[in-house]
Design goal:
- A two-stranded antiparallel sheet has the order 1-2.
- The chain starts with 7 loop residues before the first helix and ends with a helix.
- It has 10 helices and 2 strands, in the order H-H-H-H-H-E-E-H-H-H-H-H.
- The model is unreliable at 227-231 (pLDDT under 50).
- The protein is mostly helical.
- Helix 4 (87-101) packs antiparallel against helix 6 and helix 4 runs parallel beside helix 8 (194-206).
């Protein structure tokens, strides 16, 4: 379809098609429509097309569904006490906790990092490094809880090696299936790698860590429209304090 022929009716029909024919959920539909809107806006900005009425004017894109994936502190320790039955279960469990101890780091980022500095972690999220302006680098001091896990799998060049020759996609699926299996066995619904990130943020919120610091620590974009954003600068020391406080919070609630 030519971009000049896209109208609000086209978009409404497209949303209906994704829902009724493709059976996609609200979150995925929203992702498709956001990307379509980006293309439409780019075409308009570059004068490749001229609309009498912008197709997305007044159109409300479906919002992402809130995923209830964070663990309670009781579930956190239930997982921590779990004794893996095989090698992949041990790896999946330690990957989950490594993500938690490193501020909810995503698996794709974790596997690409070279831990050549024993004390510091510095990276840019794969998801956002080519989409955002400015330096979106995340810097953290590696807590001792994470170092113990890292040293088990670190190679001579600093990367982590779990002994599998899978592609990232297949390895991530393998880990996801294993965590789900562990969750079913110990009574944690929908246990997944992303639960570590969600739990990290939830605990931080519960103990009163400012949203801006949590956003920096997990690599989430800080909302520029917040007035306070113009007066503060989030630094590594704030992130380090947040990570330590959150880990201590879990230890105090055993």
């Amino acid at each position: 379809i030519a971009i000049k022929n896209i109208t609000i009716t086209t978009i409404s029909n497209f949303e209906r098609f994704l829902k009724s024919k493709k059976h996609l959920n609200q979150t995925t539909i929203g992702m498709y429509l956001v990307r379509l809107r980006v293309l439409v806006n780019l075409a308009s900005k570059r004068f490749s097309v001229k609309y009498e009425q912008q197709p997305f004017l007044g159109y409300i894109i479906p919002q992402s569904l809130e995923r209830d994936l964070d663990l309670s502190t009781e579930q956190f320790h239930l997982l921590k006490r779990y004794s893996p039955k095989n090698r992949i279960e041990a790896i999946a469990k330690e990957l989950w906790f490594l993500s938690f101890y490193l501020g909810g780091i995503n698996l794709i980022d974790l596997l690409s990092i070279k831990f050549t500095n024993y004390n510091e972690l510095e990276y840019v999220r794969e998801k956002t490094k080519n989409t955002k302006r400015g330096d979106k680098r995340i810097e953290l001091t590696i807590p001792k809880e994470a170092t113990e896990i890292i040293n088990k799998y670190k190679t001579d060049n600093g990367t982590l090696d779990f002994g599998y020759s899978f592609t990232y996609r297949n390895f991530s699926r393998y880990v996801a299936r294993t965590l789900n299996k562990i969750g079913n066995e110990i009574g944690i619904k929908r246990l997944c790698y992303y639960s570590a990130r969600k739990s990290f943020v939830q605990y931080g919120f519960e103990i009163g860590i400012p949203i801006e610091i949590l956003e920096y620590t997990i690599g989430q974009s800080m909302k520029q429209n917040r007035p306070i954003y113009n007066y503060i600068r989030i630094m590594k020391k704030h992130a380090d304090s947040a990570v330590r406080s959150i880990i201590d919070f879990t230890q105090a609630h055993r």
